[in-house]
Design a protein that fits this description.
Two copies of one chain form a homodimer. In chain A, helix 1 crosses helix 2. The first copy, chain A, has three domains: about 45 residues, lambda repressor-like DNA-binding domains (434 Repressor (Amino-terminal Domain)); about 130 residues, Response regulator (Rossmann fold); about 130 residues, Rossmann fold, CATH 3.40.50. Chain A contains 13 helices and twelve strands. Chain A is about 45% helix and about 15% strand. In chain A, the strands form two sheets. In chain A, strands 2-1-3-4-5-11 form a six-stranded parallel β-sheet, with helices on both faces. Chain A has a six-stranded mixed β-sheet with strand order 7-6-8-9-10-12, with helices on both faces. By secondary structure, chain A is of the alpha/beta class. At the A-B interface, helix 4, helix 5, strand 2, helix 6 and helix 11 of A face helix 4, helix 5, strand 2, helix 6 and helix 11 of B. The structure holds a DNA duplex.
Chain lengths: ~350, ~350
DNA sequence: GATATTGGCTAAAACGATTTAGTTCTTTTC
DNA sequence: GAAAAGAACTAAATCGTTTTAGCCAATATC
């Protein structure tokens, strides 16, 4: 059984293809199609189970009603939730989302952009990797709107971005730790040259400095992104072995690192918060259920998704030729969720 | 800056559109295009950054090199991993995957099938909901291959399915519990008429029966799918309040229920396995990290993804007109991961 | 009563590819 | 040296839509 096309409908209803198209697109009234013909066409279309071919439609109109979402890794809880919120939001605007993961690899990111571009998505929401600004500029040059999320390019404010205020988030966390009397705070971060991580790191040093605490060599542990789970776990374990003596608190800068940290803490049987206070950037189910529960800096995931989507929609609707006004990245506030670990 | 099309290349290279097409599709040799022309075209295409429009290509060829993946909820760890494994596998065969969630709602599932069908995906991998068999038959009638995963329709063996052997999995879990001396086992399951859950339930009763244990009224708790997280949690809490006296073990039949159960157990401060032995169908990061660690029946997620994908590919390549041979659902073995909770 | 206007439709181009059936030279073949 | 074969391309149809321009008859306008 073949699919039914608009011309099948036209033939069966005894009208032209154009007429069917007008009826199917609610342009029948504007095109002054008579009441009877409209009904006739609608009935035939229903009977035959007609579904317009979106490839043909997209080819003709240049619009696919699809947006491309590129995240780091869809199986990570943070990105999964972000994706879900964007998808739900997109549905409200009648857009479909197709998503894919870069695994933080810039070549893979480029491939994905190409792939989505070939599939003619109307716009993009991207969690960028390093060195992706040029590729994104090209999309913009083709008049395809792009909104960055979670990360941004500070020197490119012509690319809109929606993210959490990382500097304020980490500052708040550090102030909380220090306010509770912890002055020897170890930071576990992921290797990255990207601005959002630099902002987090800068906040760490600034807060220490503000309190007259000298940063200690080796207190900032950088886990290389490429290391596999086992290696990374080993590194975190080695670091945390010094808990309680060399340092009294640890601040994990990502959700992934936090989970790894929990695993190490469990293995090493470190008493939290007795021996070690623990704080993590980004929430995760595990942090709520672990004993003790882990305090976190929680990002407003839904809000990021909604704001990114509304920013994108605004640009999708802005059909004018003139470039869109430049704008600074939109930074939302992350809040501190106090639990038992500090 | 507009996108460059095949005719832009043709014009600039001074050849016909056909020639460009042949070169771009590696049919140049078969079509006896000369070495110089091939190079010329390739250079121009590279310089201009030509990327074929997949809508046009798909419209013409009827193949989009895209498969539709419909799962229950992409933000659930089990489905997220399944999706990732299918995506990775698809890449090997040069297919792109677009995925979406039904939230277990059969109307939503139908809408998604329609949406994917309009976008002309070449094939489907579906975690079906109730009453979806007819809609799937329609896809097959249109010559679009479908492979079910995780669930199946026992009375429809013309729809291929890849899933775990649920009956054997639960049997194994029950035998383990009973072997360890637990004879009062509570089962927490999700409301469903679907065969895979019936298989699990049947295994529960069969094993009890085999050991001469009479099933107790109220020992099988069914959490309605529609209930929100809070309500469901409350129900599980109420149930588990009797732990240690009325019953001595609990078997959660899904990952989601297990996590909910952990939350309840934590809240009620139930001693595991002292007061209550805990076992769950499906693994989850939390089960590895919770104290005590939770034993699980682990599904071979990667294998399910790979087998589903290879089954689908086989059918995608099978262009013949005659229907594909019918076949029983392919059932893979789940293994028991023994941890501390039992 | 000729000309505009309106109502109700349709023809055909266009989107960007793929693919079949040619076309035009040049080289073999007998 | 005419016919056949081969080499190197190209024209045009096609996929399923949308959309612009236009056709024809009936009615309104002067």
């Amino acid at each position: 059984m073949k699919k039914v096309s608009i011309s099948d409908i036209a033939r069966k209803a005894g009208v032209s293809v154009s007429t069917v198209s007008f009826v199917m697109n609610d342009k029948a009234v504007k095109m002054r199609i008579s009441r009877e013909v409209i009904e006739k066409v609608e009935n035939v279309a229903r009977e035959m189970g007609y579904r317009p071919n979106q490839l043909a439609r997209g080819l003709r109109t240049g619009k696919t009603k699809t947006i491309g979402l590129i995240v780091e890794n869809i199986s990570n809880a943070f990105f999964a939730k972000l994706a879900k919120s964007i998808e739900d939001e997109a549905k409200k605007y009648d857009y479909k989302v197709v998503y894919c993961s870069t695994d933080n690899d810039e070549d893979k990111a480029r491939d994905l952009i190409n792939m989505l571009s070939q599939r003619q998505v109307d716009g993009y929401i991207i969690v960028p990797t390093l060195n992706l600004a040029e590729d994104i500029r090209k999309l913009q040059a083709e008049n395809k709107p792009v909104v960055l999320i979670d990360r941004y390019f500070p020197q490119h404010d012509e690319i809109p971005a929606v993210l959490v205020d990382n500097y304020e988030g980490v500052s708040g966390g550090m102030e909380y730790l220090i306010g509770k009397g912890y002055r020897k705070v170890v930071l576990v971060t992921i290797e990255t040259e990207m601005a959002h991580m630099k902002d987090r790191l800068r906040a760490y040093y600034d807060v220490l400095n503000r309190h007259g605490i000298a940063p200690v060599d080796g207190f900032v542990k950088v886990v290389p992104y490429e290391s596999d789970r086992e290696t990374a776990l080993k590194e975190v374990e080695d670091l945390l072995a010094g808990a309680g003596t060399a340092f009294d608190a640890v601040f994990f800068l990502t959700n992934y690192l936090g989970v790894l940290g929990i695993e190490a803490i469990k293995k090493l049987q470190i008493k939290v918060p007795g021996q070690l206070a623990v704080l993590c950037f980004d929430d995760n189910d595990i942090f709520r259920l672990y004993t003790p529960t882990i305090s976190v800096i929680r990002q407003p995931i839904e809000a990021i998704g909604q704001k990114a989507m509304s920013t994108l929609i605004e640009r999708l609707r802005h059909t004018g030729e003139e470039a869109f006004p430049e704008n600074a990245p939109l930074m939302l506030i992350a809040d501190l969720v106090k639990r038992e670990s500090i």
